[in-house]
């Protein structure tokens, strides 16, 4: 099974569109998938909306809800630990990355990559947006570049895009590194990557198709400063941590089918 975790905090009525898109995606896949929506202390009626939809939902579409709000990192950890898949991914509730990208990351893990992360800076990545958002996309690009430089300075990272909201890993990696993580905010992605580096877990970057439909963003200036503080906290915490190297499980090779 492949699990897709989607953290959400007050997504509004748009969550219903995401719900229906997830339901259709799950039904279309030939292999077993599940989706786990984690409601991180939502107070905008999202819980009630999804309760109505869940009554007739596919059993592979689950909702976890708790209160109060704890942050993206806490929500993602909660979802990944509750997931049942051999491969576990997480992405944003607004589905900024299409299902083709989700499947591409899952396929990379299924092909042997312990951890696969979307990279908007990958040479093969594609950016889609209307002309009116060119300035917005440029500002977001600058923010991402600056944040990436700071992250690589403070932490043992090489990825140029640490904050892309689509990442995947094997269940064994999740079970190895998640108990080590403590960052509840947007710095979670950087702490996850730091844990993988410290545990000698290879990280594969995957090209994606990025879509901007509007200027809504959860990473304003206040959030940016908070993320920088989280980077410094992660740096200090991981200097003192002893991390056991990850040992990949030994898997039996698939049986070879003889031609009829």
From TrEMBL:
The keyword Cell wall biogenesis/degradation appears for this protein: no
Q: Which first-to-last residue range defines the signal peptide? A: none
A single Gene Ontology MF term assigned here is: transferase activity
The protein's UniProt keywords, in alphabetical order, are:
Transferase
Q: Mind telling me what this protein is named?
A: GT2 family glycosyltransferase
Q: Where is the Glycosyltransferase 2-like domain?
A: 3-123
Quote the Pfam families the UniProt record gives: Glycos_transf_2
Task: Tell me the organism.
Answer: Limnoglobus roseus
A GO BP entry:
protein N-linked glycosylation
Please give the coiled-coil regions recorded for this protein.
Answer: none
**Family annotation (SUPFAM superfamilies):** Nucleotide-diphospho-sugar transferases
